[in-house]
Automatic annotation (TrEMBL):
<dbReference type="Pfam" id="PF09369">
    <property type="entry name" value="MZB"/>
</dbReference>
<dbReference type="InterPro" id="IPR022307">
    <property type="entry name" value="Helicase_put_actinobac"/>
</dbReference>
<dbReference type="InterPro" id="IPR011545">
    <property type="entry name" value="DEAD/DEAH_box_helicase_dom"/>
</dbReference>
<protein>
    <submittedName>
        <fullName>DEAD/DEAH box helicase</fullName>
    </submittedName>
</protein>
<dbReference type="InterPro" id="IPR027417">
    <property type="entry name" value="P-loop_NTPase"/>
</dbReference>
<keyword id="KW-0347">Helicase</keyword>
<dbReference type="Pfam" id="PF00271">
    <property type="entry name" value="Helicase_C"/>
</dbReference>
<keyword id="KW-0067">ATP-binding</keyword>
<keyword id="KW-0378">Hydrolase</keyword>
<feature type="region of interest" description="Disordered">
    <location>
        <begin position="727"/>
        <end position="780"/>
    </location>
</feature>
<dbReference type="Pfam" id="PF00270">
    <property type="entry name" value="DEAD"/>
</dbReference>
<dbReference type="InterPro" id="IPR014001">
    <property type="entry name" value="Helicase_ATP-bd"/>
</dbReference>
<feature type="compositionally biased region" description="Basic and acidic residues">
    <location>
        <begin position="771"/>
        <end position="780"/>
    </location>
</feature>
<dbReference type="InterPro" id="IPR018973">
    <property type="entry name" value="MZB"/>
</dbReference>
<dbReference type="Pfam" id="PF22982">
    <property type="entry name" value="WHD_HRQ1"/>
</dbReference>
<dbReference type="InterPro" id="IPR001650">
    <property type="entry name" value="Helicase_C-like"/>
</dbReference>
<feature type="domain" description="Helicase ATP-binding">
    <location>
        <begin position="21"/>
        <end position="207"/>
    </location>
</feature>
Length: 780
């Protein structure tokens, strides 16, 4: 260890770095949970480099090996660059290489045979390395360390898939005689040891005593001003967070401040870049080339060029999605602008932590959207600064997650009864079902994969719903980039405005069978927003609790979603210019949901007549979805909602909130167990907003599937009042993670005296009062 530390030029490791390295070298799996820029990478690199250095003269010419897993390609590429710089004094003892979907095929064979530090992502491990384990046998046989960086990102369905991928890795390593030590790192993990044990299935030592020096971080909460425009029913309209963030990025660039603006969507990143370039051209044309967009869907060479320009300082400003959130070393960054609350406090602090990574002071600005949660947070900063980050929610035993991994494991090596404990208690129940489905066949004492196709292709661990759609320029045939299959219906439908590297295109056609969208370059003065419809049916009710006369339920549902039209909106103001119909096929999603019903007697007590019932339910649904991220580790695109004045399955007025992932992700279950606190917070968010009849800061949504009609603010408050009258006390005995945290959040909301929560839903054709309303995530 001493040789590796000094050879790498590390003179005085901080206490947490030394402690983590010692545990790792002693064979203990470790999670390092210290702040951003606290040297976590050295906590795992010191034992890794030390072990690789000691094994450099091994008889097989390779010696010990190590595997690094990152949630994004950008982070893996960045870490590879850092490792090569750090290990230069060690000569050729450390042979680091990135192995992901961008790696040329001619390099992959060299990596398999000679690299001793392979940097990849869970997707490549799942689809490429584990199914081809005989070709990786020498690497796996010598595997000493598995590094899992930014481990807090492995939550929900994605985290559950990764947990099973890691169990498959452990099983194959044992087959080759290896038992690697797992080294995990995150700046923003709650109960890190608990989350790490859940992810890896192993006991893990926690190191959380941060001994690194820190510069001052000034954090500003920014609410965009009201404009002279008015939305539905005359509601006031604020300037968009996108336009505000673009102006801030422009001002910071003019002053020579190195900055990143984080945006929630790919389109938002492109828009901020375009607007900032236009503003900069008015000041100094030489500055326009120093601002760019960075997002998924770019070609590999474009991403690498942008990363180099950011590191070198050639770029002063960057509008980026969360691809740059996750630990990329952008030392020298002075400011971060966050366009809209990113969904969790964990992501907020990850993004803010990108500034000031060299120990200097830094600035972070959260620009609020017209959203119930954003508005609440800028008026009540204690909900951000006085609360810990969220606990990590994942469920490796989810049968929708586990089943395809059992098939993949059986193809890698036949499953035996000795493997059941590794994959969890649900395994024994699932194997007969997989046999009945003719996916597995039992021979003697083992289960075998029965089909010719690859079992690893049964599931997409990120839930992106199939082959990405290629975006091709019609006139030249040039490939511009890709769009995830799950987002294609809403983002590259015929007539959609598509932005790429600051250039504007209009989609001429979308071929879903061949997964190709043809685009033409154009300069429209508008952007486009898709509108869709959603229906929901109850498949099975698992749990049902009386709430006075009403009921609170949790179970399985099927959601059917169809994009039916799109709106054209002015870029800066959001003014609607027109609507165009679309003819796209419906998509279905089987998932988990929480729902509540009210009776006619309750409606009478709440003074809600049939004329306002649809609007009251609709408003309560919008606001409850907006507030759920305070109670569950979810982004609002992880969840959806439907409200129906008379649902055919319940025969009562019903509001549904569901997980936007096949099989569920644990968010609706969290909502069920914290329902009293969650709906109390929702009621307070609506009631404390100063608007008269509802606005984007409480119950309106620019993405509403029903065009924000009908909505009834006062009816929603009275409806929630009568529902909460019968709410039972919540359990606080730890039976459900986060129930106590949810209560604390509700207390913060209950203390509010002004402005609160509001924007919600995704578009569909206009609705009559009897039609369901919903807010939906993209359906995979």
């Amino acid at each position: 260890m001493i040789a590796a530390v000094h050879a790498a030029g590390i003179e005085h490791p901080w206490a947490h770095q030394a402690r983590a390295a010692e545990h790792a070298l002693d064979g203990d799996s470790v999670v390092v949970a210290t702040g951003t820029a606290s040297g976590k990478s050295l906590s795992y690199l010191v034992p890794v480099l030390s072990t690789l250095l000691d094994g450099a003269e091994a008889p097989n010419g390779r010696g010990a090996t190590a595997l690094y897993l990152a949630p994004t390609k950008a982070l893996a590429a960045d870490q590879c660059r850092s490792v090569k710089e750090l290990s230069q004094p060690l000569g050729h003892s450390v042979r680091a290489a990135v192995h992901d979907g961008d790696t040329p095929f001619e390099e992959r064979e060299w990596i398999r045979q000679y690299a001793n530090y392979v940097l990849t992502n869970p997707d490549m491990l799942h689809r490429g390395i584990l199914p081809s384990h005989p070709r990786w046998s020498s690497f796996l046989k010598a595997l000493k360390y598995v590094v899992i960086d930014e481990c807090h990102t492995y939550r929900g369905v994605f985290g559950s898939h990764v947990a099973q991928v890691l169990r498959r890795l452990r099983r194959l390593c044992a087959r080759y005689g290896a038992s690697p030590v797992f080294l995990l790192a995150s700046a923003t993990a709650a109960e890190p040891a608990v989350a790490a044990r859940r992810l890896t299935g192993l006991p893990v030592v926690e190191v959380a005593d941060d001994a690194s020096p820190r510069g001052e971080l000034v954090f500003a909460l920014w609410e965009p001003p009201l404009t002279e425009l008015h939305g539905e029913k005359g509601a006031p309209v604020r300037r968009t967070a996108t336009a505000e963030a673009a102006d801030l990025l422009t001002d910071l660039t003019v002053q020579g401040v190195r900055s990143v603006a984080f945006v929630r969507s790919r389109r938002g990143a492109e828009l901020i870049s375009v607007i900032a370039k236009e503003r900069l051209a008015e000041v100094d044309r030489s500055l326009t080339g120093r601002v760019a967009a960075y997002r998924g869907g770019y070609l590999p060479e474009e991403r690498r060029a942008l990363e180099r320009a950011l590191h070198s300082g050639e770029l002063l400003g960057l509008a980026a999605t969360n691809a740059l959130e996750l630990g990329m070393d952008v030392s020298g960054l002075d400011a971060v602008v966050i366009a809209g609350y990113p969904g969790t406090r964990a992501s907020l602090w990850q993004q803010a932590g990108r500034a000031g990574r060299s120990g200097q002071g830094a600035l972070a600005v959260l620009v609020a959207r017209d959203d119930p949660l954003d508005t609440f947070l800028v008026h009540h900063p204690e909900a951000l600064f006085d609360r810990p980050v969220e606990s990590t929610v994942l469920d490796p035993d989810n049968p929708y997650v586990l089943a395809p991994h059992l098939c993949a494991a059986a193809e890698e090596l036949p499953l035996t009864e000795d493997d059941l404990a590794l994959f969890g208690p649900t395994t024994e129940e699932l194997l007969p079902q997989l046999e009945a489905a003719k996916l597995l066949r039992r021979r003697t004492r083992a289960w075998h994969w029965t089909r010719r196709e690859r079992a690893a292709d049964l599931t997409d661990i990120r839930g992106e719903g199939g082959r990405p759609v290629q975006v091709v320029e019609a006139g030249t045939g040039r490939l511009l980039g890709t769009v995830d299959a799950g987002a294609a219906h809403t983002s590259v439908h015929e007539g959609a405005v598509h932005l790429h590297q600051g250039r504007t295109y209009v989609v001429r056609s979308l071929d879903l069978e061949d997964s190709v969208a043809l685009v033409e370059q154009a300069s429209p003065s508008w952007t486009t927003v898709a509108r869709d419809t959603t229906s929901i049916s109850v498949l099975e009710t698992d749990t049902e609790i009386p709430w006075g006369d009403g009921r609170l339920c949790f179970g399985s549902v099927e959601v059917t979603n169809q994009v039916v039209s799109f709106l054209r909106r002015r870029v800066i103001t959001g003014e609607v210019l027109g609507e165009t119909k679309l003819d796209l096929p419906p998509r279905t999603l089987r998932t988990r949901a929480v729902w509540w019903t009210v009776t006619e007697d309750q409606l009478d007590r709440a003074r809600i007549d049939p004329e306002i019932l649809g609007g009251a339910l609709h408003a309560a649904e919008h606001a409850s979805i907006g507030m759920l991220p305070l109670f569950a580790t979810c982004d609002r695109w992880d969840i959806g909602g439907v409200s129906v004045p008379l649902h055919p399955d319940t025969l009562l007025p019903t509001v549904f909130v569901y997980d936007g992932h096949p099989g569920g992700a644990g968010f609706a279950e969290r909502a069920f167990h914290t329902a009293r606190s969650w709906l109390t917070a929702t009621r307070q968010a609506i009631a404390s907003c100063e608007c008269e009849a509802g606005c984007p800061s409480c119950i309106q949504s620019p993405k509403c599937g029903n065009g924000n009609d009908p909505l009834h603010k006062r009816g929603a408050v009275r409806l929630l009042d009568v529902l909460l009258e019968g709410a039972p006390e919540e359990k606080t005995d730890g039976a459900e993670d986060g129930a106590e945290e949810g209560t604390e959040e509700a207390e913060a909301v209950a203390g509010a005296s002004e402005g609160s929560g509001g924007r919600l839903s995704a578009p569909a054709e206009g609705a009559a009062e009897a039609a369901p309303d919903r807010e939906v995530p993209p359906v995979p």
